[in-house]
Design a protein that fits this description.
This protein has about 450 residues and is an alpha+beta fold. It folds into two domains: about 290 residues, 3-Layer(aba) Sandwich (Beta-lactamase); about 80 residues, Lipocalin (Beta Barrel). An eight-stranded antiparallel β-barrel has the order 14-15-16-17-18-19-20-21. A six-stranded antiparallel beta sheet has the order 2-1-13-12-11-10, sandwiched between helices. Strands 5-9-6 form a three-stranded antiparallel beta sheet. A hairpin with a 2-residue loop joins strand 11 and strand 12. Helix 1 runs antiparallel to helix 10 and helix 2 packs across helix 7. The chain is globular and about 65 Å long. The termini are far apart.
Amino acid sequence: MKAIGLRSGLLSIAWILLIWLVFIPPVLGAEVNNLQAAIDEYMNATVKTGRFNGSILVAQKGEVMVKKGYGTANFEWQIPNSSETIFRLGSVTKQFCAACIMQLEEKGLLSLNDQLQKYIPDYPQGNIITIHHLLTHTSGIPNFTNFPDYISTMMIPSPPEKTIDRFKNLPLEFQPGEKFAYSNSNYVLLGFILEKVSGQSFENYLQENILKPLHMEHTGYDHPEKILPNRASGYDASSEGLINTPYIDTSIPHAAGAMYSTVEDMYLWDQGLYGDTILSKASRDKMFTPFLSNYGYGWIITKAFGRKVIAHDGSINGFATHISRFVDDQVTVIVLSNFSHAQSSLIAKDLSAIVFGEPYDIPIEKSYIELEAEILDKYTGKYEIQPGLFAEITRKDQFLFIQVQGQPIIQLLPQTETQFFIQEVDATLTFITNEKGEFTEAVLHQSGKDIPLSRVK
């Protein structure tokens, strides 16, 4: 009786497994197809509205759900983007630099509590700035890419020590550890320290200790002069439409932003961070611990849709990038664009919303009204966004254009006489009058935030 019961039980289990195998895959397949269709609809809309051009990858629990290119890698030759297209990463480079620093700590070659003066003895106040401060952007060191001469000097080769000389004697903006202020200077310093401690260039150390172990064969330190198959050209918006982005010598961004990659390689990086191949769990836990403004070591740690997300975006001449890792759900979203104006972080958020069944908006082309030149001229001038950061609003023919310092020029299209929108990004700009009826300020509404702009001339 027991033997028969056991056999019956096994047969029942076998039937259950058979039913699961026969009937479940079509349901899962339908869900995947629905996900792919929703993502495709959304991405095609971003391309149609001029907001995106590039490649994306969406993965869940070790399975790539979508990997696809949209738009054009090179407009002069009309070469399409694909999942194998190579893009500059910009500040997504910082997470790789941070991982290298963590490896050096594991090897006992440095401590995150080391003072900066240990590696640059004559650095002013180097006795109160630590590697931890550099990693978390809490050093108070000014950001050299905000300097007025940055645009005019970015094409001139500058090894890390020369770049450091540009800001090292300037006063700190605050006492180390007191505040958060994003500064590319921090990661140029980290790149310098890495090279001094390891005895290798950042490029070579990265290749040997991160990229090779993860088989990231289409990722590296960018050198514009080298022939790099599948490399996308970078583009900026202008008053004349798309233009080729200005040249930047990649010795300038260095460990703060000089890398390139593909969505497929970035997924290898993501997966590698779940195990011990690159870093121990203790080091990963340190790297993903949020400090001031939720910034860890090369990553921002926050929540989206009620879920923990570890993310970072990047921006460099002609490119805008983002990676989001919902680690508890094992969901990864990677967005790489060869449009400098692409809102890659917003696109990644919307793609994540599609995965989790949360609300999102499909971009639509908006219509605009025509305004007389004398009305538009009331708004032209220089506006201060924050101390030291300005935007210039100009008119060309019947249109206004805005250019934030160090960023591409973008067209403003009128919805009303005082409210304008940006077609390429989800943003509006509203001009405000004072009690005399003069336009003295404006408010930029973007990503749920209101950013005031004060007219200075």
